[in-house]
Amino acid sequence: MGFSTDPFLFVGKLVRDAYGRQIGRVASFMVNLDGRIDGVLVVRGDGEFFRYPNNLFVADDDDVTLLSPTEQRAKTLCDEMPLVWRKDQALNKLVENEKIPPEMFDDLHENFENALNQLKADAQTTLEKLDKEVVRCSQQVIELRLAMLHLEVEHEMGEIDEKSYQTIEMLQVSLSRVEAEKGNLEAIRNKLSNILSEKTKQTEMEKKPPQTALMLPEPPVTVNVRNLGKRVLGV
To answer: How far is CA 177 from CA 38, 116, 124, 130, 224, in A?
Structure first.
C-alpha cells in the first residue's frame, strides 16, 4: 500500500475512505532524506490539514483511498498473533526433539512470549477502539433512519417539494455506507476477539501445572452364589 515512486502526481487528487465518502484532497507529502514518504498531508473541506501515514493509502490511477487505521491494525494483529504463537510452538518441538540447546530455547521462548504479550495488549486496546467505532456507526444508522423518516413525513404532508425530497437519495447512500462500515467493523472485531481469547486460553493451559491423577479404590467384586444342591421334587 502507499503511493507510487512519483507521489506528487497525486497532489490535488480527491481522497475517499474505503466506503466512498470524501475525506479531502492530497495537499503534499513529507519526504525523508532518503526519499521515502514519511507522511501524507490531506486538506479537508473546512481547510484543516491532517497528516496520515503513507501505508494507510491505496493509490490507483486517479483514485486515492484512505484506509481506517483501526481496521488495518486489527487485521495486522489477526495475522501476527497466530504467527508468533506458531513459531513458539515450533520452538517447543525443537527443544523436545533435542535439536536446539536448552539455553537457546530459553532466550527465544522469552522473546516470543514477550512479543505475544505485547500483541495481546495491543489487541485489547484495538478491540476497545473497534467497540467505540461500532457504537458510532450504530448511532449514525439511527440518526440517518430518523432523518429519512422525518423527510418522508414532511413530503407526505406536502411541506417540501419534489426537488427537496430528492435529498433522501443522499441519505440512503450514506446509510448504506455506514451499515457497510458497521458490518466490517463487527466482523474484524469478532475475529480479533476470538483470536485473543484462544491465545489467552492456550497460554493459561501451558502455564497450568499438570494435575496428579487421583488413585480411586478398586470397585468391590461381586460374587454370585448359585444353589449347587440337587433340586428336591415334591412327593
So the answer is: 30, 35, 27, 17, 78
